[in-house]
Amino acid sequence: MVKICCIGAGYVGGPTMAVIALKCPDVEVVVVDISEARIAGWNSDRLPIYEPGLDDVVKRCRGRNLFFSTDVERYVGEADVVFVSVNTPTKTRGLGAGKAADLTYWESAARMIADVSRSDKIVVEKSTVPVKTAEAIEKILAHNGRGVRYQILSNPEFLAEGTAVRDLFAPDRVLIGGRETPEGQAAVKVLKDVYARWVPEDRIITTNLWSAELSKLAANAFLAQRISSVNAISALCEATGADVTEVACSIGKDSRIGPRFLSASVGFGGSCFQKDILNLVYICECYGLPEVADYWRQVIGINDYQKSRFVNRVVSSMFNTVAGKKVAVLGFAFKKDTGDTRETPAIDVCRGLLGDKAVVSIYDPQVTEEQVRRDLAMNKFDWDHPRHLQPVGEPADQPVAVTSDAYEAAHDAHAVCILTEWEEFRNLDYRRMYDLMQKPAFVFDGRNIVDPEKLRDIGFIVYAIGKPLDQWLKDMPAVAS
Ligand SMILES: NC(=O)c1ccc[n+]([C@@H]2O[C@H](COP(=O)([O-])OP(=O)(O)OC[C@H]3O[C@@H](n4cnc5c(N)ncnc54)[C@H](O)[C@@H]3O)[C@@H](O)[C@H]2O)c1
Ligand SMILES: O=c1ccn([C@@H]2O[C@H](COP(=O)(O)OP(=O)(O)O[C@H]3O[C@H](CO)[C@@H](O)[C@H](O)[C@H]3O)[C@@H](O)[C@H]2O)c(=O)[nH]1
């Protein structure tokens, strides 16, 4: 029986291993982590991450062939296949600060594997890493190996949060990169046989190590580029009277373009896109490709522009000042169906509003008040370290409230900003909201989930990303002066 151990019980390690355990009942899967709180969460009735369908998967195999433990060394030592799914944050200091991947956690995991291993192992890169990381890991293991033989595989993860279980059950593809030696190919086969238990063979792609590592960064860069492209067009729509939803639908009908990932928004967030593109930019610079680096950097540039453009619209529409005005923020997670707030556009928007002295009232069905305050107090990129190691500043004494429903957030507010596309925000009683609010009452829809015309009929002044502007906004400058 193959024994699997996964180092890192986070958004990737937890769900991925739970699905492997479910689909391979004869394989023992142990997920280990240095964070006691995380492991305690996985062993409890309240899992440490919110992901639709995950509770059920974990309940069906936890204690049978799926285990969560802090005894990292024991289970790594016993495993045949060790997945490494630890944080790979953006460096905040030193060479490559603000761009390069910080491989501290990866390196310490690799050194620990070398320390405790007494039998040959396949080590699988599950974290997203710079191209050529496998070479560095091989060196660490080879120089500390005491005769143990290792094969390194790259098996990047493509799941998206909110749909992780669905994505893992029916992935578009599973990618496995390995050395092109007989030993390397034998290791690829071991991992392929695990996935082949439920993934059709034609969806399991095998490549060389560097192609697999680079494909992950490239896939995220392409996805983020689509969002920045449609967001760039959204600004032009507002200037011309075109409607970005109609434009996206029209171009998406071209089968060469396709309809998905063309929703204009307040900006993309999440733990991956920005980090991985910065990583790609840094790699390009290191290989002497500044033009390529600049090309990808601009995807982030447009994303930052989109977030500040949204704040500018709010401020300029409200007579160029939000000082002392209550603004309700609906949604703080970076997308619906997750409680994850890493790099969420809501942080930048709230900071922008607070910078203009607004009083902000936030409601999100899955994000706690503690998390909101941590996020608003945290420095850029610090969120991507294991939670118990995150340097968190004292929450500043800011005029921020976190409410338990949308109506409470909107009570007495001058404006509502919709920043996450939660289903419940589509179905709010906007007439009731309007009655609760100061007048003129504004809605700024950063996700295009409300019908602007219906809200205008109620009496709201509505701004929706990339949609024709109503007269009020046409009369205001797009950029606050
Ligand atoms: N979140 C996603 O949707 C997603 C999808 C694909 C790939 N990825 C990549 O996967 C990796 C992990 O992402 P995540 O979202 O699961 O992060 P996460 O922060 O949720 O989980 C990482 C876990 O690793 C643990 N850890 C760190 N160093 C450790 C060590 N030396 N020993 C044991 N445990 C250790 C941390 O305590 C943490 O619980 C990153 O490289 C990320 O870019 C993430
Ligand atoms: O048309 C769209 C689609 C997405 N978004 C935003 O883009 C961000 C990222 O969304 P999504 O990609 O769905 O979620 P992630 O969980 O960040 O997943 C991405 O990042 C993961 C980590 O690398 C990869 O594994 C996934 O394949 C990749 O989709 C979110 O803020 C979304 O709201 C838009 O604004 N418009």
Automatic annotation (TrEMBL):
Give the catalysed reaction(s), semicolon-separated.
Answer: UDP-alpha-D-glucose + 2 NAD(+) + H2O = UDP-alpha-D-glucuronate + 2 NADH + 3 H(+)
The UniProt entry annotates the active site at 272 (nucleophile)
Which GO terms of the molecular function aspect are on file?
A: NAD binding; UDP-glucose 6-dehydrogenase activity
State which Enzyme Commission number(s) the record gives.
1.1.1.22
Keyword Nuclease listed = no
In which pathway does this enzyme or protein participate? Nucleotide-sugar biosynthesis; UDP-alpha-D-glucuronate biosynthesis; UDP-alpha-D-glucuronate from UDP-alpha-D-glucose: step 1/1
Q: Which keywords does this Swiss-Prot/TrEMBL entry list? A: NAD, Oxidoreductase, Phosphoprotein
* Membrane spanning residue stretches: none
Q: Which GO terms describe its cellular component?
A: nucleus
Positions contributing to NAD(+) binding: 8-13, 33, 38, 86-90, 127-128, 161, 272-275, 342
Protein known as: UDP-glucose 6-dehydrogenase
Q: Which organism is it from?
A: Triticum aestivum (Wheat)
Underlying gene: LOC123099576
